[in-house]
Amino acid sequence: MTSFPIEAVARARVLVVGDVMLDRYWFGEVDRISPEAPVPVVRVARREDRLGGAANVARNIVALGAQASLLGVVGQDEPGAIIASMAAEAGIRAELPADPQHPTTLKMRVLGRQQQLLRVDFEEHPGAAALDALDARYAELIASHDVLVVSDYAKGALARVQTLIAQARAAGVPVLVDPKGDDYSRYHGAALVTPNRSEMQQAVGAWSTEAQLESRAQALRQELGLQALLVTRSEQGMTLFTDAGRDHVDAQAHEVFDVSGAGDTVLATLAVTRAAGMDWSGAMRWANRAGGIVVGKLGTSIVTAGELS
């Protein structure tokens, strides 16, 4: 495996568009059961906020040494302001149209003794005016970037994703998609789509053999006009499908502690290595290494170029 292309990555300009969210963690101790109901009582000792969703992809891109712009919708609320502040601190160029009618997507996790006990989600799809603002900023930004990353968490920011992909193609900018749902036709014309194992099963049905997976993956790739389709398969590693055929790499994780945000890290690594000129096979191997590192960390985390090297 060649060395990580730090100098080429530093010149890479990646635009991330998608569902921006705030991941909030409340850490505490559990030493008794509530007298009101048979549930643990968590005495919260520490609160931590982290960039989530598309914002976590951008954060990983910067951590790997590349330049990241972030485009998404937030609400006119405290979580939205925190996301903007944290993005700026991380060195991300963030463009975040605010929707006064809808809250910022917030995922709140309660942990006791490092174990997640509860997750509470606050989310609503953004309105048309916020999407219009996103479209306008996108039109101004797309041509000045090397790669477009589409981070789809089905929270509504990518309701017009087909138009975004078409504009990127017109500008000669390749599109990498982390998909959601079972209708992948909306991603037609992207360069790469990266479903995980369960997402792939949603899209093409369950498979019983590797040959069956390859047949269905290549059919889907041809149908969508993709250069590549990458299926991330957890403990089974990653499998890449291109015109050259099938390429597989085994998982590298030594200890899986938390898979939160692992797909974001994989997508970010694919984006920066492709922007640096690496082929799909090489990019997959670096993404696999990054994914193996990040699942050993607690919560939504990043991997740096130093850790990869």
UniProtKB/TrEMBL annotation:
CDD domains: RfaE_like. It comes from Orrella dioscoreae. Pfam families: PfkB (PF00294). This is ADP-heptose synthase / D-glycero-beta-D-manno-heptose 7-phosphate kinase. Keywords: Kinase, Transferase. GO terms for cellular component: cytosol. Its EC number is 2.7.-.-. One of its GO terms (molecular function) is phosphotransferase activity, alcohol group as acceptor. Transmembrane segments: none annotated. Residues 13-302 form the Carbohydrate kinase PfkB domain. It is an enzyme of class 2 (transferase).
